[in-house]
Design goal:
alpha/beta, seven-stranded mixed β-sheet, four-stranded antiparallel β-sheet, binds S-adenosylmethionine
Length: 465
């Protein structure tokens, strides 16, 4: 199922057809809020939304009405989406709104079924909202540039996007579903997904990440968050480069209404010497960019072709590249955990970024451990969710990890040794199948709790005897 088919079949968000936005809903996406965040110059030319043109990019089923409700005096609101069924839901909701709230003013709304990657509007926009859409294309930076090209001088772009590193356990949950044969086409998808997740131990971080997500109450939420045809978020430093190339600058960033990069400074004052993107990167590498960041971007009026290069875009790699793992004895070996290796890789990068502010990785993690603590579930329960934060892991064992084998390494081994091989961990075998899928199964099942997974490679015949 490709992305268009996915959103045709599972329009998002899966909000009931008769639901309308609450009055006052959407305060956080008001144009005026963005204009206020730009302190000088710009706010004097465009102070409020009267007469502006708005684009809602990748509008889905609900956002258009929220934006329309909060911008009643806009000249026009254009909502673009790949999915005709999402737009049909939006159209029905707009009709319902006119019937239910006949005296509430809305701007002129135009719905367009199109792929944003090859759609444009020559008249341009003063305000573009791209909420949770750019991470669903193969080249988010190219789409950002395209949107920036439609922004009028001084215009604002409000980008909401998945974090990258911080979705580690959500991605692991998605891998686990796929390994258990759960796909968007699976009948009784919701039940099957919950059953598959239930095969993991109750305290497994991927299971906790799945079960504490409100999205999992509906099939469309499960597909959107865990089985998406294309999930490709950029990291904060990649966004920094993408915005620079698009001729945009960061005005402010918020998450749940407060600045996350300012939060890093409040914990580690020396990071004030780093730029906001770098602080967001450190937060993401610590798995602490939990909700989707909101990035307010402004068109740089004086520059065409982007701002000068930010210093050091090679910062994405860690300072020390770990060794590659090689098994010494194939009968019995310790496989480095892939999810924990990923976490360690990101922490090494954070280490390099923190060192520019004179802070050691250990000090920074210790500060987060004492000041932030483990992740907890939503109130009122607020129970600890072990394993979701980087501070739940012992740093020295993470940093000692070598780079685990990738699929092609296992495939090569299987070509060498022939089929009929089984990977077993303490008497537990992965379901039979290609060796790389068996390794992936062990990684998902045991890699969260064991930095090195003890495994044995057996011939099927040997196992049975
Ligand atoms: C996760 S939903 C977000 C919907 C809405 N923005 C919100 O936040 O509630 C992503 C939406 O983007 C749309 N989309 C994804 N890629 C697109 C593209 N290349 N062009 C147009 N729409 C796209 C999908 O069809 C889907 O409706």
């Amino acid at each position: 199922m490709n992305l268009r088919e996915q959103y045709e079949r599972f329009p998002y968000p899966p909000i009931p057809a008769l639901a309308l936005p609450r009055r006052g809903q959407g305060e956080g996406l008001r144009f005026e809020l963005g204009a206020q965040l730009v302190r000088n110059g710009y706010a004097e030319t465009l102070r409020d939304h009267r007469g502006i043109r708005i684009l809602v990019a990748g509008a889905g089923t609900f956002e258009t009405l929220v934006v329309a409700q909060t911008h009643p005096r806009a000249a026009e609101l254009v909502a673009v989406d790949l999915s005709g069924s999402s737009l049909a839901k939006t159209r029905a909701r707009l009709r319902l709104h006119r019937l239910a709230r006949p005296f509430t003013r809305l701007p002129c709304v135009r719905l367009v079924a199109a792929d944003l990657r090859d759609w444009s509007d020559p008249r341009g926009f003063d305000y573009i909202l791209a909420s949770n859409v750019l991470h669903h294309v193969e080249d988010p930076a190219a789409l950002l540039s395209r949107l920036a090209g439609m922004l009028r001088p001084g215009g604002l772009l409000r980008l909401v996007t998945y974090p990258k590193a911080s979705r580690l356990w959500m991605r692991e949950a998605g891998h686990w579903l796929a390994l258990n044969g759960v796909t968007p086409g699976t009948p009784s998808l919701k039940r099957r997904a919950h059953e598959a997740i239930g095969l993991l131990p109750p305290e497994h971080p991927a299971r906790l990440a799945f079960e504490t997500q409100g999205e999992t109450a509906r099939e469309a939420g499960i597909v959107d968050a865990f089985l998406n045809a294309c999930e490709n978020p950029l990291s904060p430093l990649e966004w920094r480069e993408a915005t620079r190339r698009a001729g945009l600058s960061l005005v402010a960033e918020t998450q749940a209404e407060s600045s996350r990069s300012a939060f890093v400074v409040s914990l580690l004052p020396a990071t004030a010497a780093l730029d906001a993107w770098t602080r967001l990167q450190i937060l993401d590498d610590f798995l602490e960019l939990c909700a989707n960041p909101v990035l307010w971007l402004r068109k740089i009026p004086s520059l065409s072709g982007g701002a000068p290069a930010a210093e050091g875009t090679s910062e994405l790699a860690p300072a020390h590249v770990p060794d590659r793992w090689a098994p010494r004895n194939l009968d019995e070996f310790w496989l480095p955990s892939r999810p924990l290796f990923e976490l360690a890789w990101n922490l090494r990068r954070a280490e390099a970024l923190l060192s520019r502010a004179g802070i050691s990785l250990k000090t920074a993690l210790d500060t987060f451990r004492t000041e932030v603590g483990p992740r907890v579930s939503a109130p009122p329960e607020e129970r600890p969710l072990p394993g979701l934060a980087a501070t739940d892991y012992e740093l020295s064992s993470l940093l000692a990890l070598e780079e685990p084998w990738r699929d092609h390494d296992w495939q090569e081994l299987e070509r060498e040794l022939g089929s009929g091989l089984r990977l077993e961990h303490e008497g537990v075998a992965a379901p039979s199948g290609p060796l790389h899928l068996q390794a992936a199964w062990h990684q998902c099942r045991f890699g969260a709790s064991k930095p090195e997974i003890p495994l044995r490679l057996l011939r099927d015949s040997l196992r049975e005897s």
